[in-house]
Amino acid sequence: MNPGAGALPAMKVQGNARFACGGIGSDESGAMRAAMKDHPLSLLFARATGEYLANVDVTIKAAGGDTALAMRASGPVCLVDLPAGRYTVEASTEGMTKSHTVTVGRGSQTADFRF
User: Fold this and answer.
1) Are 5 and 38 in contact (CB under 8 A)?
2) Beta 77-81 vs 85-93: how paired, if at all?
3) What is the DSSP letter of 69?
4) pLDDT category, 106, cuts 50, 70, 90?
5) What does the pLDDT look like over 45-83, one tens digit per residue?
6) Integer angstrom CA distances of residue 104 from 29, 79, 101
7) Phi and psi of 31, rounded to 5°?
8) How far apart are CA 2 and CA 89, in angstroms?
9) What's residue 1's pLDDT?
10) Which ranges in the chain belong to alpha helices (H)?
11) Would you call 115 helix, strand, or coil by DSSP?
12) Distance CA 61, CA 24 (A)
């Protein structure tokens, strides 16, 4: 049994994607960070000064331009399960937008967004 697994928020499903966002509070934050290795993509949101951010709008688009996932991150850490492939992850908050290109399917990837 995975200690701290009960602190993880439930996975949500949108099309071919599954995701869970959280990391507010030390127990949930620790559980989310420990689970990052078990998911093909993890997203982290923080200010440039290091404070964690929540309520970030996220759009993940497949290489062909189709939207694979669109959601609002309810916490600073999101665990995302997507089919293997190349994606562009766009995150927007407080009038700023950042993007990362990631390849899913080669172990765990992390996209770290600093605003």
Assistant:
1) no
2) unpaired
3) E
4) confident
5) 999 999 999 999 999 999 999 999 999 999 999 999 999
6) 23, 13, 10
7) -65, -40
8) 29
9) 37
10) 26-35
11) coil
12) 26
